[in-house]
TrEMBL record:
<feature type="domain" description="VTT">
    <location>
        <begin position="32"/>
        <end position="149"/>
    </location>
</feature>
<dbReference type="GO" id="GO:0005886">
    <property type="term" value="C:plasma membrane"/>
</dbReference>
<keyword id="KW-1133">Transmembrane helix</keyword>
<feature type="transmembrane region" description="Helical">
    <location>
        <begin position="134"/>
        <end position="157"/>
    </location>
</feature>
<feature type="transmembrane region" description="Helical">
    <location>
        <begin position="52"/>
        <end position="73"/>
    </location>
</feature>
<keyword id="KW-0472">Membrane</keyword>
<keyword id="KW-0812">Transmembrane</keyword>
<feature type="transmembrane region" description="Helical">
    <location>
        <begin position="169"/>
        <end position="190"/>
    </location>
</feature>
<comment type="similarity">
    <text>Belongs to the DedA family.</text>
</comment>
<dbReference type="InterPro" id="IPR032816">
    <property type="entry name" value="VTT_dom"/>
</dbReference>
<feature type="transmembrane region" description="Helical">
    <location>
        <begin position="7"/>
        <end position="32"/>
    </location>
</feature>
<protein>
    <recommendedName>
        <fullName>VTT domain-containing protein</fullName>
    </recommendedName>
</protein>
<dbReference type="Pfam" id="PF09335">
    <property type="entry name" value="VTT_dom"/>
</dbReference>
<keyword id="KW-1003">Cell membrane</keyword>
<dbReference type="InterPro" id="IPR032818">
    <property type="entry name" value="DedA-like"/>
</dbReference>
Amino acid sequence: MESLIHTILAFSYIGIFLIVFAETGLLAGFFLPGDSLLIAAGLLAAGGQLNLWGVMAAVVAGGILGCISGYFIGQRFGPAIFRNQNSRFFKPQYVTQAQAFFKQYGLQAVILARFVPIVRTLVPTLAGISRMPLGIFTLYNVVGAALWGIGLPALAYSFGRLIPNLDQYILLIVGVILVLSVLPIVFKVLQSRRRPV
């Protein structure tokens, strides 16, 4: 966590923007520290080392542009990947299933995915593959980026101002948030396995 804080301070708002952009827009960025970055940046802003408005602007901009990038990557390369009938993992029917999913749950998927690690990296690309209308995707993308990019740093900032030396417990805080954000996926997977085939 110390290295994350040093990185944030060294690269400031441009670094925050680039990390969020890569995590939300490039499939290879799933390992980047999304939630922990926002929490650490909010706590640093509470300590006066960063400006909260600058942090939120960098996160929202990186989140919006990253998701649009992921969408276009999926739209451009997805059909070719899923065209192969013999592929074990990329079957054409998966695209049809994704289209039905985004038609029914597009709002929840795009907005709520922001708050779930790894899922927020995958959803924009899947939305592009499934040809979710760009205008609708962009609207949900902006709303999700604003809720996540303003809400999480502001929450960390508020707690950082209320509780002295809160930055010493940042690992525990990030761990709790990661567990809470992954629990819904675990419950959904367990629920689907219990259903009769």
